[in-house]
From TrEMBL:
GO terms for cellular component: intracellular cyclic nucleotide activated cation channel complex; photoreceptor outer segment; plasma membrane. SUPFAM superfamilies: cAMP-binding domain-like (SSF51206), Voltage-gated potassium channels (SSF81324). This is CNGB3 protein. InterPro entries: CNG_cation_channel, cNMP-bd_CS, cNMP-bd_dom, cNMP-bd_dom_sf, Ion_trans_dom, RmlC-like_jellyroll. It comes from Anhinga anhinga (Anhinga). The gene is Cngb3. It is a multi-pass membrane protein.
Length: 713
């Protein structure tokens, strides 16, 4: 280390000086912590809690087991230590990075049990089975009625049918026996129990019937699609897929509209197939009512089915009895099916727009109320703006209405995910972790209870969140938007801008004496969404958490002190050398500042005046002592005159400069003594005056006066 001469003339070691400064700083911090601990024992000790005593070790395993464990650990360490190899795919001139095949296999590996409500892979599999089911439902009637399946393309139809049958078999043998189920409120995931439950259900019977191989009849009757009609019995999987897909979609009503439209198109498809079958039965082109065999046969029949099912009219009149009966049944079926589908479509759209209708109804009722009582137009516009922004920002007017339908545990889970991160940022409510030895945070359960009581309120631009001089009864947490703190002489100066995640007004919750007053105006800068927690709600919560209440009170005091400190000035240069060992000079007490408040000559004059007054007071005390000594001397002289005089010498009284510690008060009943007169006489006695310390520390010194006779020579 280098040493540099200081201006004072001696040399200091920089390293030693830095170490001394660090030691002094730590000692001061430690002393401050202990002072606070003595003032308020609620705070925990800064010392770490003692560690638990080490538990007894288990007996060592046999040597063989040790070797096996060591080998396993070495393998794990080798596996962890090896970095993951990068896998690349070369394609033309480019090189793409792809994950290894092992990760794909782990993800695609079928679990032992499947949760049908949460496993997305199961939903994807149901979609594949649903595609196979729709293939059979749409193309089996089409191939049976229309002459689209010919010997030249039979192989293609047969190939697709085999693929669909494989999907049916995999679902029957692999997936469905692994699906979990509920029994007495318990989720059963045992393989044997799941297999028994599936085999005893109606779904299993229909699935078995749907995969029966009636295609063997092809060898006797040819490739007739009618032998595959049993494939349409797997409808349970189709409806299960609809339920699972709606549960995971954000806007499920869109899929409901598409599904209802698909139902309508499928019914029209079946009606077109029936019309072509009836026309073929009567003979193509035999009458005006049947299909004449011209153009695209499927589109012509589908057009007729649409006009008949929707009862548009304008169709040729049926001629034969078969045609009349078929047309009547078609009309009745069309009215029933079409009205049902229209009603279902209305319900789907109504459910999708229920929230919007509720919003419009509330807004219309509010506007009607304001018009009835002649509310000013400016206020009405602000109310409309609040409705529009609240609906657009959160999709509902009151979030609590949605959460009230759920159990308390679910409400708490949602509140933790949405609001816990924001509340935990507040210094006043920081929760303590279970691993924290000091436990300086609030009880986590208390924070959870508080999350359920938070209220969300939207403020428009320019709205006053709180005004200067109001009694603070709420704490505000900014969820979205900005607010500005205004101050200055006219109250329009922007002191600070608070953004999302900031907190203000938390000290008002724990202020004693009914709450403290706001010191500034807080205005919403734009649209601001705030969480509010009032004092009454917090007190109801703290009744069940007394320890957290004490800690919150202590934190509130600390925060009040910190907020009450003046703004920091320019940095003060720290003293160098040994001067840092001594603390900073204490400020002059306020009483002395008031007494010596003058500056320059006025302050010096006041100081001299006080000095004179003090001297006068001391002289008066000395005068009292002199009077007392004079009276004592006169008494001794009176006693000496009665004795024979041997030697006469002048004796002068001696006055002590020390003031008496105990001041004897004159008796009020006694007569006043005549003034003392000094007489010069010769006596053979001497007067001894002494000051001795008092046995009591508070009384100071005691004045003693003794009279002794002189020794004869």
């Amino acid at each position: 280390s280098t040493q540099e001469p200081t201006p004072s003339g001696f040399q200091t070691n920089q390293y030693a000086d830095a170490q001394l400064q660090e030691i002094v700083r730590k000692i001061r911090e430690r002393a401050t912590v202990y002072k606070e601990k003595l003032k308020d024992p609620v705070l925990s000790s800064p010392e770490g809690s003692p560690t638990a005593s080490p538990s007894k070790k288990k007996p060592p395993p046999p040597p063989k087991e040790e070797k096996k464990e060591e080998k396993k650990e070495e393998k794990k360490e080798d596996a962890e230590g090896k970095p993951e190899e990068d896998h690349y795919c070369d394609m033309l001139c480019c090189k793409f990075k792809k994950p290894p095949l092992k990760k794909y296999m782990e993800y695609l590996r079928l679990p032992d049990s499947i949760d049908s409500y949460t496993d997305r892979r199961y939903v994807a599999w149901l979609m594949l089975v649903t595609v196979a089911y729709n293939w059979n439902c749409w193309f089996i009637p089409l191939r049976f009625v229309f002459p689209y399946q010919t010997p030249s393309n039979t192989i293609y139809w047969f190939t697709v049918d085999i693929i669909c049958d494989i999907c049916y078999l995999c679902d029957l043998l692999i997936f469905q026996p692994r699906v979990q189920f509920l029994k007495g409120g318990d989720i059963i995931s045992d393989k044997v129990e799941m297999r028994k439950f599936y085999h005893s259900s109606m779904k299993f019977r229909l699935d078995v019937i749907s995969v029966l191989p009636f295609e063997v009849l092809y060898f006797f009757f040819g490739f007739n699609p009618a032998f595959r009609a049993n494939r349409m019995l797997k409808h349970n999987t189709f409806f299960e897929f609809n339920d699972r897909l709606e549960a995971i979609l954000d806007k499920a009503y869109i899929y409901r509209v598409i599904r209802t439209t698909g139902y309508l198109l499928f019914i029209l498809h079946i009606n077109a197939c029936l019309y072509y079958w009836a026309s073929d039965y009567e003979g193509l082109g035999s009458t005006r009512w049947v299909y004449n065999g011209k153009g695209n046969m499927y589109l012509r029949c589908y057009y007729w089915a649409v006009r008949t099912l929707i009862t548009i009219g304008g169709l040729p009149e049926p001629q034969t009895l078969f045609e009349i009966v078929f047309q009547l049944l078609n009309f009745f079926l069309g009215v029933f099916v079409f009205s049902s589908l229209i009603g279902q479509m209305r319900d789907v759209i109504g459910a999708a727009t229920a929230g919007q209708n509720y919003y419009r109804s509330c807004m219309d009722n509010t506007v009607s109320y304001m018009n009835t009582y002649s509310i000013p137009r400016e206020v009405q516009n602000r109310v409309r703006t609040w409705y529009e922004y609240t609906w657009e920002s959160q999709g509902m007017l009151d979030e609590s209405e949605l959460l009230e339908q759920m159990p308390t545990k679910m409400q708490l889970a949602i509140a933790i995910d949405v609001n816990f991160a924001i509340v935990n940022k507040v210094d006043l409510f920081k929760a303590s972790s279970f691993t924290d030895e000091r436990r300086n945070g609030c009880d986590t359960q208390m924070i959870y209870d508080m999350l359920l009581r938070l209220k969300s309120i939207v403020y428009l631009p320019g709205d006053f969140v709180c005004k200067k001089g109001e009694i603070g009864r709420e704490m505000y947490i900014i969820k979205q938007g900005e607010v500005q703190v205004l101050g200055g002489p006219d109250g329009t100066k922007v002191l600070v801008t608070l953004r999302a995640g900031a907190v203000f007004g938390e000290i008002s919750l724990l202020a004693a004496g009914g709450g403290n007053r706001r010191t500034a105006n807080v205005v919403a800068h734009g649209f601001a969404n705030l969480f509010i927690l009032d004092k009454k709600t917090l007190n109801e919560i703290l009744v069940h958490y007394p320890e957290s209440e004490k800690l919150l009170m202590k934190k509130a005091k600390v925060l009040l002190k910190e907020k009450g400190k003046p703004a920091p000035g320019p940095p003060v240069k720290q003293p160098q050398g040994l001067a840092n060992l001594f603390g900073k000079k204490q400020e002059t007490p306020t009483l002395f500042k008031v007494m010596f408040g003058g500056k320059g000559k006025e302050g010096l004059t006041r100081l001299l005046q006080l000095k004179r007054e003090q001297d006068i007071q001391v002289m008066s005390q000395k005068t009292d002592i002199g009077k007392y000594l004079t009276s004592c001397f006169q008494e001794t002289q009176a006693e000496a005159e009665s004795k024979p005089e041997q030697e006469e010498k002048p004796v002068e009284p001696v006055a002590s400069s020390a003031p008496p510690a105990q001041k004897e008060e004159p008796n009020s009943d006694a007569k006043p003594k005549p003034p003392a007169v000094m007489h010069r006489r010769i006596t053979n006695e001497s007067l001894i005056i002494s000051m001795t310390p008092s046995p009591r520390a508070e009384e100071g010194e005691i004045l003693k006066v003794e009279v002794k006779e002189k020794k004869k020579k």
